[in-house]
Design brief:
The complex is a heterodimer. Chain A is mainly α. Chain A has a single domain, classed as 434 Repressor (Amino-terminal Domain) (Orthogonal Bundle), CATH 1.10.260.40. In chain A, 51% of the residues lie in helices and 11% in strands. Chain B is built from 4 helices and no strands. Chain B has one domain. Helix content of chain B is 85%, strand content 0%. In chain B, α1 runs antiparallel to α2. The chains are: A mainly alpha, B mainly alpha. Chains A and B meet through α3 of A and loops of B.
Chain lengths: 76, 149
C-alpha cells in the first residue's frame, strides 16, 4: 500500500526535461530526483500546485494510490 | 565583540581542553595526593591502592568522554547537529557517565562518601541520555523535513 509518483510519465508526455521542470517549479534538481525516485516522505501543496501548473495536469495524474506491494514508479 | 554561536562552541572546546589538562594533572598527581592525604588522615594502606584503582578506572572513561565531547563539538561547528553520528556520540558519553557511576558505586565498598560522586555521575548520565533522546527525535523530524519536497 503506497503512493506512486508518476512525474516521469507526465514529463515524458509533456516532453520536458528534469532540469527545466525543476527550474520552472522552483525546486532543486536533487529534490525533483527525490520525488521521482519515490524517496520523498511528503509533498507540499505549493510544490504540487506548481507541478500541476507546469505539467498542465491534475494531482491525480502525478500521484497514484496503489494497494498492492508492487509499483511501477517511485513511492511517496 | 558580538557573542556568536561559533564563539560559544569555541569556548566549549576551550573548556574541553581545560578539563583534559586537569584530568592529566589528576592522573599524574593521584599517587602523590593519596600518599599526602594518607599522612594527613591515617587509614588502612590497602585503601590507597583501591583508591588508585578507582581513580584510574574512572579516568579511562573520563578520557573517552572528553574525546567524544570534542568530536561532538567538531560536528556542531560544522553545522552537523541532528545526525546519527551525534546521537551515537551522546550515547557514548551517557554510557561513560554510567561506567563512572558504576566504578564509584563499587568503590563505596571501601569508602562510603564515594556515593556522592556515583550519584552525580548517574545524574549526569540521565541528563545526557535525555538530551540524546531529544536529538533522536529531532533527527527523525529533520529527516521528514529534508524529504518533504
Amino acid at each position: 500500500m503506497k503512493i506512486i509518483v508518476n512525474i516521469d510519465v507526465m514529463m515524458a508526455k509533456r516532453k520536458i526535461s528534469a532540469g527545466d521542470l525543476a527550474e520552472r517549479v522552483g525546486i532543486t534538481p536533487a529534490n525533483l530526483s527525490i520525488l521521482k525516485n519515490g524517496k520523498a516522505k511528503a509533498i507540499r501543496f505549493s510544490t504540487l500546485m506548481a507541478l500541476c501548473h507546469e505539467l498542465n495536469c491534475q494531482p491525480g495524474d502525478i500521484l497514484e494510490f496503489q494497494d498492492d506491494a508492487f509499483g511501477t514508479a517511485g513511492s511517496l | 565583540m558580538e557573542w556568536t554561536n561559533d564563539r560559544s562552541i569555541g569556548l566549549s572546546i576551550v573548556f574541553v581542553y581545560v578539563f583534559a589538562v586537569l584530568l592529566l594533572a589528576a592522573d599524574i598527581a593521584a599517587p602523590f595526593l593519596l600518599s599526602w592525604s594518607n599522612r594527613l588522615i591515617p587509614s588502612d594502606p590497602s585503601h590507597g591502592t583501591f583508591a588508585l584503582i578507582t581513580l584510574y578506572s574512572a579516568s579511562v572513561f573520563a578520557w573517552i568522554c572528553l574525546v567524544l565531547l570534542r568530536m561532538l563539538l567538531r560536528n556542531l561547528r560544522a553545522s552537523e547537529v541532528f545526525t546519527a553520528e551525534n546521537i551515537r556520540l551522546l550515547r557514548g558519553i551517557s554510557w561513560c557517565c554510567a561506567a563512572v557511576a558504576l566504578v564509584f558505586l563499587i568503590s563505596m565498598l571501601y569508602f562510603i562518601p564515594y556515593f556522592v560522586v556515583a550519584a552525580a555521575a548517574a545524574f549526569m548520565m540521565l541528563i545526557v541520555r535525555i538530551v540524546k533522546n531529544i536529538f533522536q527525535q529531532a533527527a527523525d523530524m529533520k529527516s521528514d523535513l529534508d524529504l518533504t519536497i
